[in-house]
Amino acid sequence: MSLQPASTDIATRAQSVIDEFKGLEGPLLPILHGLQEEFGYVPSETVPVIADALNLSRAEVHGVVTFYHDYRNHPAGRHVLKLCRAEACQSMGADAIAAQISQALGIGFHETAKDNSVTLEPVFCLGLCACAPAAMLDGEVIGRLDADKVEEIVAEVRS
């Protein structure tokens, strides 16, 4: 199956990613990781192409994309801020940090700011329990969050 002509660039780039990983044993997750890296999300129009390439149903591919929280099926903001919601971070004040960030950005979890500056996502453990509460901004971890660090993060994503 091919993609519609309007998405030729997506089709070409997606096919390149699929070709790179399709020879691996269990290639679906590496393909999805590759697409996520290439586009910042897994475009819905690539699902049938992946399904055909791997002899899977569209439902199977869609199910994997929607099951794993790290895969997005729509573009994120320019910045992605992930706040740890695990118990260690919660016990160190993560709920108050989350409320402060949410109020400052004007968005909740799983939302993107109207100006597309930032997407806010929950994550369940960044492995920084000794530095709780923790967050990850664009792949960079931030430990020992406090009100001052929150102000710095908000300023960075708004710039």
UniProtKB/TrEMBL annotation:
Q: Which amino acid positions bind [2Fe-2S] cluster, per UniProt?
A: 84, 89, 125, 129
- Family assignment from sequence similarity: Belongs to the complex I 24 kDa subunit family.
- Annotated InterPro entries: NADP_DH_HndA-like, NuoE-like, NuoE_N, Thioredoxin-like_sf
Kindly list the cofactors needed.
Answer: [2Fe-2S] cluster
Which domain of life does this protein belong to? Bacteria
Q: Which UniProt keywords apply?
A: 2Fe-2S, Iron, Iron-sulfur, Metal-binding
Cross-referenced PANTHER family, in alphabetical order? BIFURCATING [FEFE] HYDROGENASE GAMMA SUBUNIT (PTHR43342:SF1), NADH-QUINONE OXIDOREDUCTASE, E SUBUNIT (PTHR43342)
**Single GO molecular function:** metal ion binding
Which PROSITE patterns has this protein been placed in? COMPLEX1_24K
An example of a Pfam family matching this protein is 2Fe-2S_thioredx
* Reactions listed under catalytic activity: a quinone + NADH + 5 H(+)(in) = a quinol + NAD(+) + 4 H(+)(out)
- Protein name per its UniProtKB record: Formate dehydrogenase subunit gamma
Cofactor binding note from Swiss-Prot or TrEMBL: Binds 1 [2Fe-2S] cluster.
State the taxonomy lineage: Bacteria, Pseudomonadati, Pseudomonadota, Alphaproteobacteria, Hyphomicrobiales
